[in-house]
């Protein structure tokens, strides 16, 4: 049977109307003081649902007060933040679209000016290169986390995940990509720890492993997606020396926990990994029979071909979903798709 991006799909006993996913995208429109989301944000997600998105993955949502990397980032660690997300899930569910909350901690990619005077945290006390989004200050040297603090953050993931369920989300995505906190543990360059959270790859994956273990207690395991990437937002030249070894070790953790969804994040779906002839998706598909969400500069034709060839099960669009709230309608009708315009898109939410 041939499949298209418009064929339905079952994910964690949720029936998706089609294979089209709205990729997680930080927009910076939450209340900076409270971390709550408002009706404008509910309307923004609601519109993409009304026009038929199969699944929406929200922007990164902070799991605690030190998890934010810039201004206007929503949270899901207080009661009022949790309630505010109900506006979004209610709006989206009116149209039968499903929605996952992306749980996020930026670790060292932040600044005390964003964190109410607190230093950013990371596995080791090493500053990132580059500048804090919107603030344009260089990244600060982070505080190295004590073991007690690590366990407390793991607990915060569980609380955030439970709050996400209370807010009416259908599932969650753990953001373990792009050089943020979980990735700072996985990356040998940013994790110089000598304890059980550093050193071997197995140890560096322990933080992710323990987060999944806790989160699984409050979210059905087949509704947990894990986002992984070689690319780091603060280190454009970063390369996995042994991509296959990393991917296999990640799959081992996911298999142990019976996690069924991966979302390998790349700039361009077709690009091979820097040290491997294959792309990250190919590598996952070779060893992974469960759901893969494809992403990265995918156009409509490419999306259909990915699904047809079973290279992935779902196709996520990022920037095109910002410039075309009615992307699914346009894809179905083969209408013009408007290109993403960075300047306009960062100043208004529509
Ligand atoms: C404005 C913007 C914000 C983004 N924020 C996030 C985010 O919060 N979490 C995340 O995992 N990826 C984020 N991304 C990456 C996207 O999810 C996606 O992987 C990327 O845009 C590539 O897909 P595309 O070529 O279809 O846009 C963001 C991308 C953009 C353009």
From TrEMBL:
Signal peptide: none annotated. It comes from the Bacteria. Residues 5-334 form the NADH:flavin oxidoreductase/NADH oxidase N-terminal domain. GO terms for molecular function: FMN binding; oxidoreductase activity. SUPFAM superfamilies: FMN-linked oxidoreductases. PANTHER family: NADH OXIDOREDUCTASE-RELATED, NADPH DEHYDROGENASE 2-RELATED. This is Alkene reductase. It comes from Gracilibacillus dipsosauri.
């Amino acid at each position: 049977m041939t499949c298209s991006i418009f064929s339905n799909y079952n994910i964690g006993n949720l029936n998706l109307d089609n294979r089209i996913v709205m990729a997680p995208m930080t927009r910076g429109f939450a209340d900076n003081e409270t971390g709550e989301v408002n009706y404008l944000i509910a309307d923004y997600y609601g519109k993409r649902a009304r026009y038929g998105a199969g699944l929406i993955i929200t922007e990164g949502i902070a799991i605690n007060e030190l998890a934010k990397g810039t201004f206007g980032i929503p949270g899901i660690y207080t009661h009022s933040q949790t309630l505010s997300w109900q506006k979004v899930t209610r709006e989206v569910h009116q149209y039968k679209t499903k929605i996952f909350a992306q749980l996020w901690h930026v670790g060292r990619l932040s600044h005390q000016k964003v964190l109410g005077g607190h230093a950013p945290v990371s596995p080791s006390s090493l500053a990132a290169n580059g500048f804090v989004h919107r603030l344009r200050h260089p990244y600060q040297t982070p505080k190295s986390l004590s073991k007690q603090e690590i366990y407390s953050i793991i607990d915060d993931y569980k609380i955030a995940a439970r709050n996400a369920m209370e807010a009416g989300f259908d599932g969650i995505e753990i953001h373990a990509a792009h050089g943020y906190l979980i990735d700072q543990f996985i990356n040998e360059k940013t994790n110089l720890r000598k304890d059980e959270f550093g050193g071997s790859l197995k140890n560096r994956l322990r933080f992710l492993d323990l987060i999944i273990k806790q989160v699984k207690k409050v979210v059905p395991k087949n509704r947990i997606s894990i986002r992984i990437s070689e690319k780091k937002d603060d280190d454009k030249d970063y390369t996995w020396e042994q991509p296959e070894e990393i991917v296999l070790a990640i799959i081992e953790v996911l298999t142990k926990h019976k996690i069924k969804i991966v979302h390998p994040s790349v700039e361009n779906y077709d690009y091979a990994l820097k040290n491997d002839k294959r792309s990250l998706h190919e590598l996952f598909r070779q060893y992974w029979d469960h759901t893969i969400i494809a992403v990265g500069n995918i156009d409509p034709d490419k999306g259909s071909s990915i699904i047809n060839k079973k290279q992935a099960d779902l196709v996520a669009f990022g920037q095109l979903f910002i410039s075309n709230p009615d992307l699914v309608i346009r894809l179905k009708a083969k209408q013009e798709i408007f290109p993403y315009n960075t300047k306009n898109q960062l100043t208004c939410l529509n």
